[in-house]
Amino acid sequence: MTKAVESWNRFWFTPEAPHTLAAIRVLTGGLLLYSHAVWGLDLAGFFGPQGRIPLDFIDLFHADPAAWSMLRGWESVGAIWTFHLIGFVLFGSLFVGCFTRIAAVLSFLWEVSYVHRGAAALFGFDQILVMLTMYLMVGDSGGAYSVDAWRRRPERFPRPERSTSTNLAIRLIQVHMCIVYFFAATGKLRGDSWWEGTAVWLSLANYEYQSVDVTFLGNWPLIINAMTHVTLFWELAYGALIWPRWSRPWMLALAIPVHGGIAVCLGMITFGTVMLVGNLAFVPAATMCRWVAAIWPGKVLNRGDGSGD
Amino acid sequence: MPYLRGTAQDNGYRFFAPDPGPSHLIRYELVTENGVTRTGQIPDREVHRPRLLYHRHFMIAEMLFTLSAQAMEPPEPGIPAAALRELEMEKEMATRLARGVARDLLRRNPDVVTVRLFSQTHLIPSPEEMRQGAGLRDPAGFPPPAPLGEFSRQSK
To answer: The pTM is what?
Structure first.
């Protein structure tokens, strides 16, 4: 029993360096900004008084008051635009890591508002994005790769500190990703095409989704079958095989063709990207440090080696 | 559960589940004061760019199909009252969302007096059909569209 308690405490409460969470913050903030910009291309068209998603529809679709939104009840295009511009400031602050703790909380509140208000126009991208935004409130996501970290007097710039809250945030994202893949897989098990091995064909040959035509793969049904069953097995096994050290790299490596394929071939670049961002939670801080240093060498960005020592 | 709904975490994550199915579009007819009819569709990859904007419109079309398809089926005899109420609610949601789409089209097209909306299913050919020469956009893949309603500028 004591060992179980020790393992539990070690899993959830060991202090962790912020580099992985910070990288997730940067990428999540970037995706929030992009999504926000796209809403803004036709804000009145989506949310205005004569928009496609009318408030009387939302009132019925989200009759539960728990599905709150700061955008509900606003029909003035000017007011909606004011709210939208504040969102840009908040998501931008989160992206660059300025007043990160406050930006994270407010970004979450803004994102939930859009998710509930834009109910008819959402897909998996929004579901994962709001999940990541929520957990960024928990840990020290501004502890590295941020304006906050830079403002801490560079000449006395401390190494990013390990903290329990950072580990908690990372673990919550990891567990939530396991839950996502579990329900994604079990949902698929209810479908004949996933058992028959034809589901990938039904995705690739759907013209409205298609961004790159790979229907030539239909000439080799065994390849379609294999892609379908590997995808299904990967999602089903994710919650078990992502944790052991020997299998984690393989599971993460498979995430790239699965979600990269969705991004490139099915036109859902944002969804494929946000799923890969969620998978980054399984990359140790020290490894994230090395990756970032390899892409952007330089002392300011790369204080600390992720070991916290 | 209110805490899941309140934090927008009440999702099933049913990506491409249970089966990736055919897609659904909104086809519309815009009738002008002069009786000229223009047609279009939502989503339209020539108009709705970038890709995320296209996908937002695509999801609205899919939502409208999902809500209206159930509502169009006559209720089974002896259906429980609660289920009947749910069907009625879905029908009302479909009407409100269709009205929203129509109002937006009227807003963008000041010369139009009437908008007719249709839900168009786009079937997926099998690999065998494609080997025999079928294309993804063949007319055979578009069954007759289902009407979603007619909306005029006066009644919007």
So the answer is: 0.94
